[in-house]
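To: structure subgroup
Subject: Chain for Friday's discussion

All,

I'm putting the inputs and outputs inline so they're searchable in the archive.
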Amino acid sequence: MKLLATLALAFFAQGALALDGAQILQKVDRNLEPESYESYRQLVDIQPDGSRKEYVLWTIKKGRDKVIALFLAPPSDKGRATLRLGDNMWLYMPEVGRPIRITSLQSVTGSVFNNADILRIDYSAEYDVKGAEELEGALLLDLKARTGEVAYDRLKMWVDKSLLLPVTIEAYTASGMLVKTLRFSNVKDFGGGIKRPATLTTDSPLHKGYKSVMQWSGMKRANFPDEAFTLNALPRVQELRK
């Protein structure tokens, strides 16, 4: 009986930890961004020789898994738009005239950021918390992808304990290989109760010498109709921008 009680207590403790980890991850999602919002981002790709290519994107999100990013610059990419619905992604190019399918591991900008990074949905929509550990000043979450369609099989997420915002994320393949590190910095108050990192930097051992930086210049709560997040509406997404 004593052994059964000990095992039951251990099982309960493990379940409580997993539940707490899930709640922490959901809080991280909402602290990073409202469930529905619009924002402006600058994406900078830095080559090994120091040369740079810059993009400006207007992004809208609704719910946990609907995202659109519209390219405003450079002129060669202006008017292009990407749509994500859950695990499915499309790219609309005016010169082509119709949306084409893209994958999460591709990059429409050719940067270290892939399409899943650029069109990020809630972490809690893609990952289950398999472990949570309390460190000095931080929490460490071990996240496992719910499906094989997710860009990264596993994430290690270091979370600021007081702000409940991510500080560093390491992304791994199913075999345990590190493919990318994401670093969040420059916490900024955007107003309306939104206080989050304004800068996200990434590099990868698979792309030595390359670095990509994402900068948020604005984010605010906003609501958009479900019809906006459809393939038919994608060519007209510019009309939603005020």
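Points worth raising on Friday:
The helical segments are 2-32, 115-118, 123-126.
The longest helix spans residues 2-32.

D.
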